[in-house]
Amino acid sequence: MAGCNRHLSAIGVNFDVRWATIFVLIARQGPVAVMEIAERLGITHPAVIQVINELEKNNLITSTKSAEDGRKRLLTLSETGQAMLPKLQPLWDAFIVVNQEMLGKQTHNLLASLQEMEAQLAERPFYDRIQDQLNQPKTN
């Protein structure tokens, strides 16, 4: 991530790569609610809130209350966020190409391994697996 942030700084863009996934989701799907972001990305609500707060602090997104549900915040890109998209897209495209090249040279298929792990966790959560392990009788 540090390398990505260095490139962003080098072109004079005040953007942290940690924000990218949520920023792109808002750009493509906005207006979008906080819980929808958490569900679609499979990350916790507090993690989404943390990134959203940073994006708002940097004037990259705006938040409005839903007309249907006043408790729900709907997020969209601000004018500043919209203006930043054309600067970010070429870098993101380059990041994707570099990652694909690096993954293509791997002797082990990392993405397949991650998908297998995710499938196992979907069958039985990690917490449950740990509980089973802790509850097994001790053998000497």
UniProtKB/TrEMBL annotation:
Keyword Transcription regulation carried by entry: yes
Biological processes, Gene Ontology terms: response to stress
Alphabetical list of PROSITE patterns matching this protein: HTH_MARR_2 (PS50995)
InterPro entries given in the database record: ArsR-like_HTH, HTH_MarR-typ, MarR/SlyA-like, WH-like_DNA-bd_sf, WH_DNA-bd_sf
Recorded GO MF terms: DNA binding; DNA-binding transcription factor activity
Top-rank taxon: Bacteria
Pfam families listed in its UniProt record: MarR_2 (PF12802)
Domain HTH marR-type: 1-123
CDD domains: HTH_ARSR
Keyword Transcription regulation belongs to the record: yes
Annotated protein name in UniProt: HTH marR-type domain-containing protein
Gene source species: Spirosoma telluris
Phylogenetic lineage: Bacteria, Pseudomonadati, Bacteroidota, Cytophagia, Cytophagales
